Amino acid sequence: MPGVIAMRVSRMGHFPHNPRLSTGRAQRARMQAYVYKSQRKADTFVYLAARDDFARLPEPLRTQLGDLSFVLEVALTPERKLAREDADVVRTNLASRGFHIQFPPQPDPAIRPDA
Fold first, then answer.
1. What is the dihedral of CA 87, 52, 97, 101, to 10 degrees?
2. Which residues pair with 69 in a beta bridge?
3. CA nearest 26: which of 76, 99, 81, 96?
4. Is the pLDDT of residue 101 over 80?
5. Which range of residues forms the domain containing residue 76?
6. Edge to edge, what strands does the sheet with 45-48 contain?
7. Are 18 and 30 spatial neighbours (Cβ–Cβ below 8 Å)?
8. Secondary structure class of 50 (helix, strand, coil)
9. What secondary structure does DSSP assign to 55-101, as a single string?
10. What is the pLDDT of residue 78?
11. pLDDT tens, 1-49?
12. Looking at residue 55, which CATH number applies to its domain?
Protein backbone atom coordinates (compact mmCIF):
# COMPACT_ATOMS: atom_id res chain seq x y z
CA MET A 1 0.00 0.00 0.00
CA PRO A 2 2.76 2.59 0.62
CA GLY A 3 3.57 2.51 -3.09
CA VAL A 4 -0.02 3.40 -3.99
CA ILE A 5 -0.04 6.41 -1.67
CA ALA A 6 3.28 7.66 -3.05
CA MET A 7 1.99 7.26 -6.62
CA ARG A 8 -1.14 9.31 -5.89
CA VAL A 9 0.83 12.09 -4.23
CA SER A 10 3.37 12.21 -7.05
CA ARG A 11 0.63 12.51 -9.69
CA MET A 12 -0.67 15.55 -7.87
CA GLY A 13 2.65 17.27 -8.54
CA HIS A 14 3.99 17.42 -4.99
CA PHE A 15 7.49 16.26 -5.94
CA PRO A 16 9.13 19.34 -7.52
CA HIS A 17 12.44 17.49 -7.99
CA ASN A 18 10.81 15.47 -10.78
CA PRO A 19 9.72 17.91 -13.52
CA ARG A 20 7.65 15.25 -15.32
CA LEU A 21 5.40 15.01 -12.25
CA SER A 22 5.12 18.77 -11.67
CA THR A 23 3.62 19.99 -14.90
CA GLY A 24 0.22 21.09 -13.56
CA ARG A 25 -0.92 24.64 -14.29
CA ALA A 26 -1.01 25.54 -10.58
CA GLN A 27 2.54 24.26 -10.12
CA ARG A 28 3.83 26.35 -13.04
CA ALA A 29 2.06 29.46 -11.75
CA ARG A 30 3.55 29.06 -8.27
CA MET A 31 6.43 31.34 -7.30
CA GLN A 32 8.34 31.37 -4.02
CA ALA A 33 9.06 34.69 -2.37
CA TYR A 34 11.32 35.41 0.58
CA VAL A 35 10.23 38.37 2.68
CA TYR A 36 12.57 40.58 4.72
CA LYS A 37 11.83 43.50 7.04
CA SER A 38 13.93 46.65 6.94
CA GLN A 39 15.48 47.44 10.31
CA ARG A 40 15.89 51.11 9.36
CA LYS A 41 12.57 51.90 7.63
CA ALA A 42 9.42 51.12 9.62
CA ASP A 43 6.82 48.92 7.90
CA THR A 44 9.02 48.45 4.82
CA PHE A 45 9.44 44.94 3.45
CA VAL A 46 11.53 43.44 0.66
CA TYR A 47 10.35 40.42 -1.32
CA LEU A 48 13.15 38.48 -3.02
CA ALA A 49 12.86 35.79 -5.71
CA ALA A 50 15.83 33.91 -4.19
CA ARG A 51 16.60 33.64 -0.50
CA ASP A 52 19.30 36.06 0.69
CA ASP A 53 19.90 37.34 -2.88
CA PHE A 54 20.52 40.93 -1.75
CA ALA A 55 22.78 41.55 -4.76
CA ARG A 56 19.56 42.06 -6.79
CA LEU A 57 18.85 45.26 -4.83
CA PRO A 58 20.48 48.43 -6.19
CA GLU A 59 23.18 49.72 -3.83
CA PRO A 60 21.42 53.04 -3.00
CA LEU A 61 18.29 51.10 -2.04
CA ARG A 62 20.26 48.64 0.12
CA THR A 63 21.90 51.56 1.91
CA GLN A 64 18.57 53.28 2.50
CA LEU A 65 16.90 50.11 3.86
CA GLY A 66 19.75 49.16 6.18
CA ASP A 67 19.91 45.66 7.64
CA LEU A 68 17.18 43.26 6.53
CA SER A 69 15.75 40.53 8.76
CA PHE A 70 14.15 37.42 7.29
CA VAL A 71 10.42 37.28 8.09
CA LEU A 72 8.87 34.47 6.05
CA GLU A 73 8.81 32.37 2.91
CA VAL A 74 5.56 32.48 0.96
CA ALA A 75 4.27 30.69 -2.14
CA LEU A 76 2.74 33.22 -4.50
CA THR A 77 0.01 31.70 -6.65
CA PRO A 78 -2.60 33.49 -8.76
CA GLU A 79 -5.14 32.77 -6.01
CA ARG A 80 -2.93 34.11 -3.21
CA LYS A 81 -4.09 37.28 -1.46
CA LEU A 82 -1.59 39.51 0.32
CA ALA A 83 -2.53 41.95 3.07
CA ARG A 84 -1.18 45.16 1.50
CA GLU A 85 0.14 44.24 -1.93
CA ASP A 86 -1.28 42.97 -5.20
CA ALA A 87 0.17 39.47 -5.57
CA ASP A 88 0.27 39.81 -9.39
CA VAL A 89 2.41 42.96 -9.13
CA VAL A 90 4.74 41.24 -6.65
CA ARG A 91 5.06 38.22 -8.97
CA THR A 92 5.77 40.45 -11.98
CA ASN A 93 8.45 42.41 -10.11
CA LEU A 94 10.08 39.23 -8.81
CA ALA A 95 10.18 37.76 -12.32
CA SER A 96 11.58 40.90 -13.96
CA ARG A 97 13.80 42.43 -11.24
CA GLY A 98 14.24 39.69 -8.66
CA PHE A 99 12.77 41.90 -5.90
CA HIS A 100 9.71 43.89 -4.85
CA ILE A 101 9.54 46.63 -2.21
CA GLN A 102 6.49 47.02 0.03
CA PHE A 103 6.40 50.53 1.45
CA PRO A 104 4.40 51.56 4.53
CA PRO A 105 0.78 52.50 3.92
CA GLN A 106 0.19 56.19 3.33
CA PRO A 107 -1.95 57.95 5.94
CA ASP A 108 -5.50 58.66 4.85
CA PRO A 109 -5.83 62.47 4.46
CA ALA A 110 -9.54 62.19 5.35
CA ILE A 111 -8.61 61.00 8.84
CA ARG A 112 -7.41 63.83 11.05
CA PRO A 113 -5.34 62.74 14.06
CA ASP A 114 -6.50 65.75 16.13
CA ALA A 115 -10.21 65.10 15.55
1. 50
2. 37
3. 76
4. yes
5. 31-104
6. 68-76, 31-38, 45-48, 99-102
7. no
8. coil
9. GGS-HHHHHHH-SEEEEEEEEE-TT---SSS-HHHHHHHHHHTSEEE
10. 86
11. 444 444 333 333 444 444 433 444 444 578 999 999 999 999 999 999 9
12. 3.10.510.20
57: left (phi over 0), alpha (psi -120 to 50) or beta: beta
Residues in the chain: 115
Cβ partners under 8 Å of residue 52, min gap 6: 34, 70
Which residues, other chains included, contact 55 with Cβ-Cβ below 8 Å and sequence gap of 6+?
none
3-class DSSP state of 22: coil
Q: Which whole number is the average pLDDT over 46-55?
A: 97
pTM for the model? 0.69
Cβ–Cβ under 8 Å, residues 21 and 13: yes
Residue 19 lies in a domain: no
91 within some domain = yes
